[in-house]
């Protein structure tokens, strides 16, 4: 039997040490159970859609339930308008491509902020906010656009109509919320939803004013009597 190798000073005998880089399966399982994720869990939902889980916000439960229902409509329409902006940001064409590409994305970001604010208002009122695309599609009043590309004036017209649907709803719901004592919902709708949508309408609508780019159209001006 050959003599055991003599360890030199400073040298480590790796045979008796755990190889931390390549642990055996039993070494791996040992002591790590609590750190392992528990996957594929399923259970009943804790709050069904349409039910209110009242929070202590000094607001009548019926007022909360009414605001939640009305806000979910505005949420579904705002999500749809937000997505219309992204669709048109990608698909816009023509000599105003760059300007509209940037404008549509700016409005998309602003609508995304509204989506979050409305959804979180619904949750704090004790309700459940609509979130997923199929539920949004079933709920929205905004007409579905084609999958294909449309001309820029058609895209803009489509979004102006969507803005007007939301503005009508927001004005009506703001008044109802104020009457029911839900001042927070009234404030969200007036100072965020209505003001943002009105401003975006202005920025869009001015693109549909038919004015010449360089040379004034004298014939058109004379015909209109100005
Ligand atoms: Fe982009």
Summarize this structure as a short list of keywords or feature phrases.
226 residues; flat; binds fe (ii) ion; 7 helices; mainly alpha; single chain
C-alpha Rg (nearest Å):
30 Å
**What structural class results from the helix and strand content?**
mainly alpha
Q: Give the cofactors and ligands.
A: fe (ii) ion
Indicate the low-confidence ranges by residue numbers: none
Terminal Cα span: 116 Å
- Tell me the number of helical segments per DSSP (H or I, 4 or more residues long): 7
Number of strands: 0
Biggest sheet layout:
none
- How large is the share of residues in beta strands? under 5%
Envelope shape = flat
Helix content: 55-70%
Oligomer: single chain
Helix/strand order: HHHHHHH
**Mean pLDDT across residues:** 91
Question: Could you characterize what this model shows?
Answer:
The chain is mainly α and about 230 residues long. It has seven helices and no strands. Bound molecules: fe (ii) ion (FE2). The site of fe (ii) ion has 2 residues, from loops. Fe (ii) ion binds next to loops.
Question: Brief description of this entry?
Answer:
This protein is mainly α and 226 residues long. It has seven helices and no strands. It is flat, with a radius of gyration of 30 Å.
Which helices and strands appear, and what pairs or packs with what?
Blueprint: H1 25-29, H2 61-91, H3 97-124, H4 133-139, H5 152-179, H6 183-205, H7 218-223
């Amino acid at each position: 039997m050959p003599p055991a190798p003599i360890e030199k000073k400073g040298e480590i005998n790796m045979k008796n040490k755990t190889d931390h880089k390549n642990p055996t399966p039993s070494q791996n399982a040992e002591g790590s159970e609590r750190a392992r994720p528990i996957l594929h869990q399923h259970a009943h939902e804790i709050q069904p859609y349409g039910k209110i889980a009242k929070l202590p916000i000094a607001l009548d439960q019926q007022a909360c339930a009414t605001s939640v229902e009305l806000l979910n409509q505005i949420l579904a329409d705002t999500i749809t308008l937000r997505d219309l902006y992204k669709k048109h940001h990608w698909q816009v064409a023509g000599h105003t491509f760059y300007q509209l590409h940037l404008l549509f994305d700016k409005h998309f970001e602003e609508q995304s902020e509204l989506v979050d604010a409305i959804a979180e208002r619904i949750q704090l009122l004790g309700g459940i906010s609509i979130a997923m695309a199929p539920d949004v599609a079933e709920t929205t009043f905004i007409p579905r656009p084609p999958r294909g590309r449309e001309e820029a004036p058609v895209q803009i017209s489509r979004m102006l109509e969507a803005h007007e649907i939301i503005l009508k709803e927001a004005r009506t719901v703001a008044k109802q919320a104020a009457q029911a004592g839900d001042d927070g919902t009234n404030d969200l709708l007036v100072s965020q939803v209505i003001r943002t949508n009105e401003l975006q309408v202005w920025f869009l609508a001015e693109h549909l004013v038919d004015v010449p780019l360089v040379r004034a159209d004298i014939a058109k001006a004379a015909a209109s009597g100005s």
